Amino acid sequence: MQFFGGSEISPSPPAPTASGNNGHMMYVFNRNGVCLLYREWNRPLRTLDAQQDHKLMFGLLFSLKSLTAKMDPTSAAEKGNLGMPQLPGQGCSFHSFRTNTYKLSFMESPSGIKIILVTHPRTGDLRESLKYIYNLYVEYVVKNPLYTPGSPIRCELFNTTLDQYVRGIA
Asked: For the whole model, what pTM was predicted?
């Protein structure tokens, strides 16, 4: 079953957007900011410990979502204060940003699961790929009777499938 439209997840994942292994790292956060999964494939520099890194990434996303919602020119409704939490899907959508050294792609599910994929800056649009990764998460983690919601993801089948897929897309 696929949760973001389309057909089943196993037959045809989205086409690769670039060749080679350009995926650097991936984060999965729950709605409370708890990092459920952190994976590295090609991260040459490590400057922070894991906890600091996760907090900074979640804070960056929180700030960017708040800023884009506040600056949304199409919303006539009251926008609230900058920095106030928003419900998933509320306000202007933030999908990605690019610097000279990396591209950060972001997707938030209706349940508040946030998936962040950091890749090479020349990587194309990864929205469909992030939806596919979310569907993998649902199939291999959420539907796993041994998984406790809110706990770190330790599903070997999910990790293996995710590794293969990210190495193919990024």
From this structure: 0.77
